[in-house]
Amino acid sequence: MPETIPAEGVKVGVSAGPNGRRRVSVCAGTACVFAGSMKIHDAFVAEIAEAGLQEQVEVTIIGCHGLCSQGPLAVVSDGDTYYPRLKLKDVKTVVEQHLAGGDVVEKLLYVDPATGERIACAHDIPFYKAQHRIALRDVGVINPESLDEYLARGGYEAARMALTTMTPEKIVEAVLESGLRGRGGAGFPTGMKWKFAAASPGETKYIICNGDEGDPGAFMDASIMDGDPHAVLEGMLIGSYAIGAHEGYIYVRAEYPLAVKRLRMAIKAAEERGLLGDDALGSGWSFHLKIKEGAGAFVCGEETALIASIEGKRGMPRTRPPFPAVSGLWGKPTNINNVETWANVPWIIAHGAAAYAAYGNDTCKGTKAFSLAGKIVNGGLVEVPMGSTLRHVIFDVGGGIKDGKKFKAVQLGGPSGGCVPASLLDTPVDYESLAATGAIVGSGGMVVADDSTCMVDLAKFFLQFTQNESCGKCVPCRLGTKRMLEILTRITEGKGEEGDIERLESMALNIKKTSLCGLGQTAPNPVLTTIRYFRDEYQAHIDDHRCPALSCEALITYAIDPDACTGCTLCAKKCPVDAATGEKKQPHVIDQALCIRCDACRAACKFDAVRVVSGPEEIAAAVRAQHA
Amino acid sequence: MPRREATPEQAAEAASPELDVDLSQVQALVEEIDPQGNLIALLQRAQAVFGYLPEPVVDEIARLSGIPSSRIYGIITFYAQFTTVPTGRHKVWVCHGTACHVAGATRITEAMEQELEVGDGETRADREFTLDSVACMGACSQAPVMRVDDETFGNLSADETRKVARKLLEQVLAERGGEADA
């Protein structure tokens, strides 16, 4: 990486609070909240008061710190000491030993799974070291509910510079030169989009932030909106001036109440300080920002559907042209960018287009945020230079596959994307290279699958999603995805027919070619890529009535291996339908007529005696063995 | 995720004239939020006030705004957030995002369906529970996850899910017992 990149904005870290006090930052990202971080936060407040340290140490919340699989986590400002997987009882220890006593609590530190060593400082953890954070520069660093903390990190300085010293043309030029492309997935050059909207004739223009992040398994935009809301506001303020729009909207997905709350607070605070509104930053430029909450429709992520939804209509896409730059919201020229795109803008203006373009490869500049999920060690939020290989992201940053299992595929781009197999792990992550594999960068969701994930079932899962979310306007999407789903369903039920794979392929191509909007045009991608790379798995379901991943419920059987069973009765206790029975210290048996394949017995068994098998012969043998 | 549709009984109940809805509140809402261009926001507020969107409320919005009720229903049925039937006192959301799916979300829903005796996307007859699936809650690293009202649960197994459900049922029974005593 070039030397010229300033260190700040690239590293993860937690500084002392604005008033110089020591600070405990508790991650309040969604995953940490699910893991109980708010209770940890309250416990810190109580214990610190108990120890009489409330004058010296403050407790704050931060947005997603990144390494979600280590949540709930807290970072102490002294040396950015990192305490992962905190339990309530640990809080007292940290307060007494570290905050009061001044000694790092060794036994609570992060353990590097690769070396077994304990690491104290957040920056030294390989997961964080391997990243370069621009869009996520303040996420997990500042308290997202505090404007002061954003300002202390140089916030709104880029907007001040842009609005008071630069012409709109210069700003558009800078964004063009930076090479920034739409981070929502389509990858259209942002500067070009701005240029069109700026050149479009008309007094009234609008800008919109697309925060309708609907891909299941993607949470980058949510993390930016609820972790660093001012970055989005500042990017939009700069954009409004460059394009000539006095009004803007942030469209937020219905399922993100926290993002809505934080954005509202941020807008209010910025207006009160004169950073937004009439005469923003004393520059004479006026820009007003409103929030629109979605109402639960995935298709509204498509720009023309999103515009219809802001107008209070059914969110149905329309044909383009005219593009929104010519005729968008209320028929006026409109520029729509995604959350992450907007969040990059202040950094580009502050550090220069060249600094941004120094990251990435020939076709794609800058960095990209990804959410890593699925069967991966370091699940969480990451940002890496464009052009990094999938292997780098999944193994170096992501730490590889959980429980020592084998990598099978990575699903990129959610329901519009595809599955990339192990043989293509050296593919660079950029728009063109990933498109060549049949997948897409998409908004940046990466879900990793291991051997226990059935590729046919995964394709069915995504198609079920798109089928459900199809707005119904055009026939190929509405009916085509339904027919494809029926075929996939019968395959996973062992009722697949000869020629089903070919039927799926031909329907997929037709739907791609003839659908009106991006939803239909990309809906078949998960099916096409899984057929392309895992055709044998489809074949096994159809020809042998066997699910190689032992996942499709209709094709698997649970049976107890009498040689391994000790008769501990645990499975019988856990079975919700009394299918597992037996005498104490005698091998147990699963009644196939009663078993609902809920996996409770296998999960409970300490002796690995519950076998899951698939395929008619294997099933017959396992059931026979039970009664032998 | 599946749009919630009314069973014939629920539809009949929602349409019944005995429905206890204070329509003067609709007037206040329409004055506060301009229905022209803000219809979605208006419906969101109305649903927050009434808990769902019963026919008399929709008719009143139509009457006051001049927007045909057919158009309003066009919007209500398009967006997953809106419901024309009452929902349960406790709401259970099981996440079915990709990460939760590969981590076994189907089994979490099955466990909930069996223990709470309510189908996915449905409300129990006694209106204690509504069980729903959501596309992704963004807590992928804790998959599979579930939310019950404001409480969140991560890294669930089917077995733990059943425990949560049984505790909920106990709680509801205890509350009812309390009411009976009083």
Model description:
The complex is a heterodimer of chains A (628) and B (182). Chain A is α/β, with parallel strands linked by helices and 628 residues long. Chain A is 39% helix and 15% strand. Chain A contains 24 helices and 20 strands. Chain A has a 5-stranded mixed β-sheet. In chain A, helix 2 packs across helix 3 and helix 7 runs antiparallel to helix 8. The longest helix of chain A has 19 residues, at 525-543. Chain A is globular and about 85 Å long. Residues 1-14 of chain A have low confidence and may be disordered. With 182 residues, chain B is α+β, with helices and mostly antiparallel strands. Chain B is built from 8 helices and 5 strands, in the order H-H-H-H-H-E-H-H-E-E-E-E-H. Chain B has a 5-stranded mixed β-sheet with strand order 2-3-1-4-5, with helices on one face. In chain B, a hairpin with a 5-residue loop joins strand 2 (122-123) and strand 3. In chain B, helix 2 (24-32) packs across helix 3 and helix 7 packs parallel to helix 8. The interface between A and B is large, with 61 and 51 residues.
